[in-house]
Amino acid sequence: MIGAGFGGLRASKYLADKDVDVVVIDRQNHHVFQPLLYQVATAVLSPGEIAQPIRRILHSYKNIEVVLGEAVDIDGTNKQVVLGDGVRVNFDYLILAAGARHSYFGHDDWETSAPGLKTLDDAVEIRRRVLLAFEMAERDAYLQDRKRQLNFIVVGGGPTGVELAGAIADIARQALAKDFKAIKTADARVVLFEGSDRILGTFAPELSDSARLQLEDIGVEVRLSSFVTEIEPGRVKVGEDWIDCDVVVWATGVAASSLGRKLGVETDKAGRVFVEPDLSIKPNKDIFVIGDMASIKQADGTPVPGVSPAAMQMGEQTAKNILAEIKGKARKPFEYNDKGTMATIGRSKAIAEVGKFKFRGFIAWLMWLFLHVFFLIGFKNRLAVMTDWFWAYLTRERSARLITGKAEHMQDAIEFMQAARARGTRSKSKTKV
Amino acid sequence: MIGAGFGGLRASKYLADKDVDVVVIDRQNHHVFQPLLYQVATAVLSPGEIAQPIRRILHSYKNIEVVLGEAVDIDGTNKQVVLGDGVRVNFDYLILAAGARHSYFGHDDWETSAPGLKTLDDAVEIRRRVLLAFEMAERDAYLQDRKRQLNFIVVGGGPTGVELAGAIADIARQALAKDFKAIKTADARVVLFEGSDRILGTFAPELSDSARLQLEDIGVEVRLSSFVTEIEPGRVKVGEDWIDCDVVVWATGVAASSLGRKLGVETDKAGRVFVEPDLSIKPNKDIFVIGDMASIKQADGTPVPGVSPAAMQMGEQTAKNILAEIKGKARKPFEYNDKGTMATIGRSKAIAEVGKFKFRGFIAWLMWLFLHVFFLIGFKNRLAVMTDWFWAYLTRERSARLITGKAEHMQDAIEFMQAARARGTRSKSKTKV
User: Fold this and answer.
1) Per the residue annotation, which of B49, B163, B194, B316 is the catalytic one?
2) Helices then strands, each counted (H, E), chain A
């Protein structure tokens, strides 16, 4: 098993206490509840609240061993996974569930200026940039009487982009407003760019419209049919126009783990592996590819979406197929069961689509809240997250507003963000300490 | 005001809503409750639980402005603080409270191998190393049938060293024991080296003895009169002997902020500024130096210790003196009021000394617990820490067991820690996934 995301973890749990030995390899020691990453990026939750050590999640199963390591190659002939340091791990069956990152469409150099949001480290880095932007604006306004517009740009109108844009606008208007004195944090501009003609394109068009209106209601500018064509430190080119900005977050494009390309099988442009109906690959039926790494179509011809329920269902089906085959039974093809999708926009704002039913606003937000607490792994995490949310809802405060990172990076960041620097002093009439 | 540690924060709060303008400059955006840093380093608490944004702590005071920035120089002639990017901040009075770090006695190159524990980033780095050491040992034992002794070394038997050594031993024996399958985490060796003939030298000798016994009781080896003379990646030289180790933590020596040396005043070897009885400096009576940066003697000739109560008392006295002088009154000299000290050793283990009274074991630990929750800043933090402690006490689990750090650093770390690497495979009889 490579990867302990939603798919890998579900497969592992299904294989728990069965007559197989399971080795779970992940390059992180923790499983992250990705749907809440944006809340870490916007200082609502702490990293520890949405993550659990993989070892802890699986510790009660005697037949499962967890190995921290990065798989760099698959040796199909010898049935071995090759780790970063050359160590090889044997397998009879391999489940590849290493997930995906954001794709910069060939512009990987944009990542420094416009980080994506896939890991806890990404989330902490985005939090650092967002909070630093406000700090720097306050500093310029107070020490140098220099007021300037704060601009936050989110690229991509999928769930992550929408959630991030909404949460940044929330922070600026609520949590930070009281703490800054020289600037009005609510004046910060949050712009969401989406290439297509509506946001949250996997939802029904009327829900996309509702989401856009809800976003605009909390002050986010939504720009549809807008392509970002260039990114430099401090500015973004949209179509032909350059737009200055303090923070850019990249929330579009999918690039499946590069491990998929090591299998000698055809992949789509995003690196997703074209899998057989049972999620195995043609040249080696003992290797399965699941979750965001797999490209497979539903009965109606539409692709299975890259969402966590799909990954979990794939994990479970694969585990079932392996156990069946060991017992001499036939594998069954994978069928995606769409139980509905939802996206949150901000405080009391969300949309949800379950079969023919569509929800928006407060009721959709409650559904989102309930499901996300319910699926969060670990009782203690659920308790902590609920406390934090309740606290934030009541007080509109954010508890995790830390800017971390080594001191020298901090200085770099300050210098980086102060593109235009002027030396000056100011004096006040009262005694200054 | 430079620095928002215990001293700076106390001074700021005392000056709040008074007829002065206060500018608080800190290179971090948060105040850290340093006495609990070791609990972040050992995965009991999350960074967010022991830190609060400075801006948030002081947000209700209209006359206080918080500036994120690193003070690099003091221009006494023009009465200005110079920030890292050249911006200058005027002052009528300056309170210098930038604290101290650990000193490597001229061997700053040791820091990479043996980090100290002064900031949240230090704590997260130590946590990463400790957890990674166990992960690597498990990996070697499982994938390569290579068992090896895990060695953790703590240098320095002051409160930080004792707390860290005790907490690492606790983790190995309790929290991690169930989660690792190929290694016995309880077999990990934790060695505490102290140069003098007893640990916690500022306490009464019988309490030092008690602390040593309590440490040994939870499995820590205490080596007194032992000097570390050399540190290399993976090993430490004590006296004439080299000792292999997986993690070294540096918890000895004090180096006051280098700002003290920019004042043109005499400093002691540790860079602490010799201050006047009112904590100001001779050449410029409008500059005060407080907390770990100041060197001052008590009435009985002993130095005021570098502890948080002393820093807070200095902060308050300085604020009082400034307000008095503005009103035309005279300054009063600083007098340290020793209310007692305590150090914790582990679960239900601690020592405390209050005047003539001495406490040890469970009762001292309860006192420690109560006081540390009480003085923690922020109601929500207190609640979260109490919940975590109660949880950890009941279940012996640790909630913050995350190894964070960019993926490439993770790989470096893995390679760094696998000093001896061998290639090999192993097979098992059961089906392997």
Assistant:
1) B163
2) 10, 25
